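Shipment paperwork, digital attachment
Item: protein structure file
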Amino acid sequence: MIKIFDVENGELRVILRGHHDLIHDLQWSLNDDFLLSASADCSLKIWNLSSLRDASDTYTDKLNYTENDVKYFVDQLLHPSFVYGGGFYPDTAEERD
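Attachment content:
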């Protein structure tokens, strides 16, 4: 289970339950819009959590794992064995500016 909290007020924003085994690694994208999760269930999943930063996201059923997984899930990469880590490759064009 992945729990995302608002660090300023401690509010639970969302729970994601897309994996079926231990989660070994979590990585945020540079702009904090995407979360990558690597798991012992032989998958790496990408979540789009950009709407959580907006106050306009009024999705209140934070504990409904099935709907959360559908709403925020982007894609997954499968591997024949455990996935221990992952990361986003930074955009080199942003680094030059």
